[in-house]
Design a protein that fits this description.
Blueprint lengths: L2 H12 L6 E13 L6 E6 L8 E4 L3 E8 L12 E4 L26 E7 L6 E7 L10 E7 L17 E7 L4 H11 L7 E4 L2 E2 L10 E5 L4 E8 L5 E6 L4 E6 L2 E8 L2 E3 L4 E7 L6 E5 L2 E2 L15 E6 L41 E4 L2 E3 L6 E3 L11 H6 L14 E4 L4 E6 L8 E5 L4 E5 L13 E2 L1 E4 L4 E6 L4 E7 L2 H5 L3 E6 L1 H7 L4 H11 L7
Parallel strand pairs: 1-4, 3-8, 9-13, 12-21, 22-26, 25-33
Antiparallel strand pairs: 1-2, 4-6, 5-7, 7-8, 9-10, 10-11, 13-18, 14-17, 14-19, 14-20, 15-16, 15-18, 19-21, 23-24, 26-31, 27-30, 27-32, 28-29, 28-31, 32-33
Bound molecules: 2-acetamido-2-deoxy-beta-D-glucopyranose (12 copies) and copper (II) ion.
The site of one 2-acetamido-2-deoxy-beta-D-glucopyranose has 5 residues, from loops.
Length: 524
């Protein structure tokens, strides 16, 4: 072999794993469906709730073409997709999908292609959902998994495929437009009718829709990827007679931690390894939820939010044990968020800038404030304003709640303890953050904190740090979309000069705003 050829071979071997463009088409259509037995018109991807699974491999580029075919005017007719939890590098910020932050929505009968490279070797469990008003409540949600061929924890499980994904989410019988109108009129957040497990649920007095069945083979270890696709409710996951070993939190590989109950807030994800090590039988997977007073919606019955873990060889029937809400107190070994550690632990960098965010609800109104300001989506997206020269906080309306930071700094966000009894799952777009203080603990941890992209903000206070090394206007908001709609949101905009330098949107993106603005309100 000549020297030249072997050098070429060596170069080939040193290349990172082969990266591919993954073309995906999603037809956004109104379709009838009865996830919990109540037939209603929904907003869906390809006609199903949840929408089709999107999968990719580390380093791929997602090329997602969205055809907006919505036609049911009882719900929003425009749309926009967010690929929740994926990091987005500055040059791709315009394909990040946040309506009025990084893009305008896609008008009915229009199409748009989001090109989203999977950067920095990011892998894990993600999801996509509408990021226009509260439209995802009407059904537009689905799982997005990025597989890691070199998963450092792969020796811990045998099976990880399309059958090991659990999407738990709240479900509503009414469509969002009347519910939103009711919320604005009363200040009372709508209460869900049911909880669904992979798109199947039950409500009080409803038909006995067969529970979702998760099939397992005795002696096998499964990586279940749990996604809380709620718009409001908190679910508590457990499996009768089985433990769960957490190995991933919002895309971060975690030091394995065995628990038997996991609380997950809206938008949060965990991978857990479950070993089918019990006698062949049927076992309940309990997914009770909390979110608003059940007295406001008599359909609600958290006990009915569940699925069945069925061992091969077990009869096709419900488990014989009672429907519990999870382990009894004396057996409870629940996840404490503050105890999560990344598999590759590292100290959080020191903070350069402190920002304190106070969350306050206006009594009796559908209005949430962050530092006395209720976020109101602007007509011109933040990114477009930046590209047009906006360079300081003063260049944005107060109601845009936009914080401007220099690039390459570490921002520490401090949420003081709040009197409100509901935990607000704050979600950062485009990046993840070091969770320095979890709401689950009084301890500060700068030594080896977990990095995630959604964390609860509540009664004990929460502190996070994020880097502005990835400039752009990144939406930072409560993932209870009713609260977001009521103003519980901010935009963390960093490196505005760098953003202008690096972001070069396509003509298709430039065309979105004029097309949307030209629509009469009922088509927006
Ligand atoms: C969605 O439906 C379209 C049209 O039938 C199809 O081409 C596409 O492959 C489907 N997408 C997925 C992710 O299954
Ligand atoms: C749901 O309602 C629609 C419209 O009334 C009807 O076409 C459809 O057949 C119904 N589906 C079921 C499963 O009842
Ligand atoms: C979308 O196209 C269909 C078929 O051409 C048409 O019937 C419908 O009115 C259009 N919708 C809008 C909002 O323009
Ligand atoms: C991604 O992984 C490859 C192969 O393991 C490595 O060479 C490369 O440095 C990684 N890139 C980043 C940005 O971490
Ligand atoms: C939806 O909400 C409206 C307004 O509150 C109400 O009139 C209507 O009956 C509700 N529909 C359903 C299916 O709950
Ligand atoms: C999902 O999140 C919501 C809102 O934070 C919460 O009420 C619900 O219990 C969570 N569900 C699960 C299964 O963790
Ligand atoms: C679950 O974990 C606990 C504590 O680690 C252990 O005592 C128990 O035996 C485990 N249960 C099963 C079913 O593996
Ligand atoms: C909820 O469902 C369970 C199981 O069917 C039932 O035992 C219980 O009475 C229901 N709760 C309410 C408040 O109806
Ligand atoms: C940020 O706040 C913390 C806690 O009050 C303080 O210790 C730290 O010095 C502050 N850092 C900066 C850069 O202001
Ligand atoms: C909010 O407004 C109150 C009363 O106007 C004022 O005292 C307080 O300092 C403001 N808080 C912030 C964070 O701006
Ligand atoms: C934007 O602000 C930064 C920091 O204040 C400054 O260095 C830069 O020159 C400004 N850019 C423009 C275009 O005004
Ligand atoms: C700008 O902010 C003011 C309050 O400071 C608000 O009344 C107004 O509606 C906002 N305008 C826009 C276009 O968002
Ligand atoms: Cu909230």
């Amino acid at each position: 072999m000549s020297l030249l050829v072997s050098a070429a071979f060596a170069a080939l071997l040193a290349l990172p794993s082969f990266s591919e463009k993954i073309p995906i088409t999603l037809d956004i259509v109104n379709a009838f469906g009865a996830p919990d037995g109540f037939n209603r018109s929904m907003v869906t991807a390809n006609g199903t709730y949840p929408g089709p699974l999107i999968t990719a491999t580390k380093g791929d580029t997602l090329v997602v073409t969205v055809n907006n075919l919505l036609d049911d005017s009882s719900m929003r007719l425009s749309t926009s997709l967010d690929f929740d939890g994926l990091w987005v590098n500055t040059p791709d910020a315009f394909n990040e999908g946040s309506s009025f932050v990084t893009t305008c929505p896609i008008a009915p009968n229009a199409s748009y292609t989001y090109t989203v490279p999977l950067v920095d070797n990011q892998t894990g469990t993600f999801w996509y959902h509408s990021q226009l008003s509260v439209q995802y409540v009407d059904g537009l949600r689905g799982a997005l998994i990025v597989y890691d061929p070199d998963d450092p924890l792969k020796d811990l499980y045998d099976v990880d495929d399309e059958n090991t994904i659990w999407q738990v989410g709240d479900w509503w019988h009414n469509s969002t437009l009347p519910m939103l109108a009711g919320y604005v009129a009363t200040g009372i957040v709508p209460v869900s009718d049911s909880g669904t497990f992979n798109g199947v649920g039950r409500y009080n007095g409803g038909p006995e829709v067969p529970f979702f069945v998760v099939n397992v083979v005795q002696g096998t270890r499964y990586r279940f990827r749990i996604i809380n696709t709620s718009a409001r409710n908190v679910f508590t996951m457990s499996i009768d007679s089985h433990n769960m070993t957490i190995i991933e939190t919002d895309g971060t590989a975690t030091s394995p931690m065995t628990v038997n109950s996991i609380d997950m807030l809206a938008g949060q994800r965990h991978s857990v390894v479950v070993e089918a090590n019990q006698p062949v039988a049927n076992y309940w997977i309990n997914a009770p939820y909390v979110g608003g007073s059940p007295a406001r919606n008599l359909n609600q019955n958290a006990t009915l939010s569940r699925a069945i873990l069925r061992y091969a060889g077990a009869p096709e029937e419900d488990p014989s044990s009672p429907m519990s809400l999870g382990p009894a107190d004396e057996d409870l070994n629940a996840l404490v968020e503050a105890n999560l550690r990344p598999l590759v632990a590292a100290p959080a960098p020191e903070a350069d800038i402190n920002v304190t965010l106070n969350l306050v609800v206006t009594a009796g109104k559908a209005q949430w404030n962050v530092n006395n300001v209720s976020y109101l989506a602007p007509e011109v997206p933040t990114l477009l304003k930046i590209l047009d020269g906006a360079n300081s906080t003063d260049d944005f309306n107060v109601t845009e709640n936009t914080f401007v930071f220099p690039p390459n700094k570490i921002v520490q966000v401090i949420f003081p303890p709040s009197e409100d009894d509901e935990e607000h799952p704050f979600h950062l777009h485009g990046n993840n953050f070091w969770l320095i203080k979890s709401n689950s603990s009084e301890e500060l941890n700068t030594e080896n904190p977990i990095k995630r992209d959604v964390a609860g903000v509540g009664s004990t206070g929460t502190i996070m740090r994020f880097s502005t090394a990835n400039p752009g206007p990144w939406f930072f908001h409560c993932h209870i979309f009713w609260h977001l709609q009521a103003g519980l949101a901010t935009v963390m905009a960093s490196g505005l000069d760098e953003t202008r330098k690096e972001v070069h949107p396509t003509q298709a993106w430039n065309d979105l705003c004029p097309a949307y603005e030209a629509l009469p309100p009922e088509l927006q």
